[in-house]
Amino acid sequence: MDRDKILLTPGPLTTTLRTKLAMLRDWGSWDADFNAVTAGLRRSLLQIVQGTDSHVVVPLQGSGTFSVEAAVATVVPRDGHVLVLDNGAYCKRAARLTTMMGRRCSVLAFDEAQPVSADALDDKLQSDASISHVVLIHCETGAGVLNPLQAVAEVCEKHGKGLIVDAMSSFGALEIDARKTRFDALVAASGKCLEGVPGMGFVFIRKAVLDACAGNSQSLAMDLHDQYVYMEKTTQWRFTPPTHVVVALAEAVRQFEEEGGQPARLERYTANYEVLVQGMAALGFKPFLDPAVQAPIIVTFHAPDHPAYQFKAFYEAAKRHGFILYPGKLTQIETFRVGCIGAIGPDEMRQAVQAVGLAMREMGIPCTD
Ligand SMILES: *Cc1c(COP(=O)(O)O)cnc(C)c1O
Predict the structure, then answer these.
(1) 10 lines ligand 1 (CB under 6 A)
(2) Which residues fall within 8 angstroms of residue 207, CB to CB, at 6 or more apart?
């Protein structure tokens, strides 16, 4: 069959037909029509975080990691000292890119099954005054843990430290309000909970720190301050924009607004999550995380403890039934992940559970159901 598989991954995600159709046109990067799309998109993004007064938003070409790297390079001075709160794979990636950007980097390590601790951060900032910035991953997509953004932001504010938030897998689905939560930079991307296609990220930068960002970046392409200044001056992107991605994201954001914005999206993803976890439980699958620390974004399940289980075969079988799953990202135990995000609802999740049941049967692994 030529029908697209449903993507139950942390991006790219399943998109609507409207979003896909928006890509069927060519746009000139210098053209006023395209630049109006960029300007409207930036206004909408700022409204999503209530950040119109306090922040600017700077889009950047590339996958989400490009924008995390750009945020660190732009916001942290070259002699800055970054503390990464680490409870998973994306935290480790942030620490690695910080070091590669030539910034001094320290890591405060936590269990990957638990949120990071704002109290531990408080102690750390008390004992090490050299730390200038903190990096937090809002939803650690590795295991699916929700980290305490508000509490971490309050501790950073109390100590007068900068905060860089990777909100890649939470933005649009979980509440983030720039009027309540103080951050210097917050990073997200087109192909996650806004349900656009992958290819660009965007970084909210607090106006109060923007001027001081000039000249921090040692990379030309990653310099968000330069991108911002150029965009304000010319209305254009500095270098070739991903035009089809931009118009698809603008169309996806229109649908996001029509659906009811962030609260509606959270409601749909929560419904997806509940159908998934209940259906999988009936098949005998256990989530890795305590539900109290789980974001309704992506769920890590323990792999079946059966000699016939092999992720590759399981993946292929689920794919034959129309669903693309995701491997686990934990180092110690065998797991797999199922995303709850994208242009899908509880019906697709019920079908996904059925596909998992069929895959198990085909592999000869007994299921409870
Ligand atoms: C998806 C994601 C990223 C970006 O990954 P890319 O593969 O570069 O798009 C970064 N951080 C988190 C938490 C993510 O979920």
Answers:
(1) yes
(2) 54, 55, 56
> 79 alpha carbon to ligand 1 midpoint, in Å?
26
Is any atom of ligand 1 closer than 6 Å to the C-beta of 348? no
* DSSP structure string for 268-284: HHHHHHHHHHHHHHHTT
**Rounded to 5 degrees, what are φ and ψ at 368?**
-65, -35
- CA dihedral for 44, 49, 55, 61, sign (positive or negative): negative
3-state secondary structure of 236: coil
What is the distance in A from the centroid of ligand 1 to the CA of 282?
31
What number does the ligand 1 atom closest to the CA of 169 have? Answer: 15
| Separation CA 274–CA 33 (nearest Å) | 42
3-state SS, residue 177? coil
For 213-246, the pLDDT digits (tens) are 999 999 999 999 999 999 999 999 999 999 999 9
32-48 helix and 243-259 helix, angle to the nearest 10 degrees:
40
- Residue 180 alpha carbon to ligand 1 centre in Å: 25
pTM to 2 decimal places: 0.97
The best mutation among 65, 136, 147, 298 to test binding of ligand 1, ranked by most ligand atoms within 8 Å of the C-beta, falls on: 65
Six-digit token string for 171: 């933005």
Assess contact for 202 and 74: CB atoms under 8 A: no
Distance (Å) from CA 67 to ligand 1 centroid: 9
Q: Which domains does the chain have, with CATH numbers?
A: 6-11+261-362 (3.90.1150.10), 17-258 (3.40.640.10)
Is residue 268 within 8 Å of 276, Cβ to Cβ? no
Q: Is 199 in the pocket of ligand 1 (CB under 6 A)?
A: no
End-to-end CA distance of the chain: 28
Q: How far is the CA of 33 from the centre of ligand 1 (A)?
A: 30
CA of 65 to the centre of ligand 1 (A): 6
Query: Amino acid identity, residue 367?
Result: C
Output the DSSP codes for 157-175: HHHT-EEEEE-TTTBTTB-
Average pLDDT taken over every residue of the chain: 97
